[in-house]
Design a protein that fits this description.
Elements lengths: L3 E6 L4 H8 L7 E6 L7 E4 L9 H12 L5 E6 L15 H25 L5 E7 L15 H17 L8 E6 L6 H8 L8 H7 L6 H9 L10 E3 L11 H4 L4 E3 L2 E3 L3
Parallel strand pairs: 1-2, 1-4, 2-3, 4-5, 5-6, 6-7
Antiparallel strand pairs: 8-9
Helix pairs in contact: 1-7, 2-3, 3-4, 5-6
Length: about 260
Amino acid sequence: MSDTTIWITGATSGIGKALSQNVPYAGARIINLSRRKHPDFESVIFDLTEPSTWGAVRSHLHKELTNFKGERAIFIQNACWMAGNGTIESLTEEDYQKALYANVMAPLAIGEMFVRNCRPGYEAGLAMMSAGAAACCLEGLSAYGPGKIAIEHWAQNVDKELANKPGRPWVCAVRPGGTRTATVQRIADTLDPSMPNAQHIRDNIMRRLDPTSAAKQIWGQLPPKPGISLISFGEPPEDPQYRFEDQRKKSVNVPGWQLMYR
């Protein structure tokens, strides 16, 4: 039996695939969680856009972690659903709702499943994949970027909640920096007016890391140092129209309250 088990949602493509191929623990047991089976690893089948399927993940984690005998259990919530991209008026209500389930609700629900089922006696850790879109206002990504903000805020909250618990899992969010995945390349190549940021992505596509380099960079920072709940590689776009950091300077003063982006 391996002393390390690693779960990766969406290990069949993109950064998830690269993470599974560059695990730094020799002989680790790798489990893919996605809509389709992985050709090389065990798989748990579920669909981010269908909450009725999420129970399969909870049942699996409860079974595996309740009596876990290994030394290390790491879960990487990486998967997202990019078919729901586009300006809000360009998407059907059904697709927009699916995007909210997949990119906002599912990551938090799955993170909770892992944390709740961890037990003292072994190293446990949860890495939630965020993105530069958490720091940027990108038209056409209103069901994606806010989900990344939620992931980062959730990771910070849960990390603080668990800070004084013995045998607690470490929890962090990771912004991998600009990565040249097939999904990003499709967005860059699109001429769809519902994706107004395609030109910006296209202009910067060659500055992005390949998935393997991004994966190695991420593994090199896990587990995070104590007190670190966000690991960020790279910077958000320099254009002020995209940056929350610049927009928050325009915060609104209301008697008794200060409304800010973060």
